[in-house]
Amino acid sequence: MVDTCAGKDIVIAIDPSYVPKSGKTTNGLGYFWSGRASKAKWGLEVSGIAAIDIDNHTAFYIEAVQTPSNLSTTTLLEHYTNVLVARKELNNTYKR
């Protein structure tokens, strides 16, 4: 869809968002940064990935990816980067 509807200049963006969630048994629960509260809060984090069409001033939503709460071997920035690199290798939508 991006290739057929977007202009020639696109960038890929990722936007992590905090999702409040109570309970103890939901997979991925942990403390994540909430920009609205300006602090880490208990819940989930989901990262929205979009192709931003510079020419037409719009964006195409591609995918949402849940952030794991137990990132013991990587930082959050490395996790976000790995998510984008893995999707780039799997999907030609990211290429022009």
TrEMBL record:
This protein's superkingdom? Bacteria
Q: What is this protein called?
A: Transposase
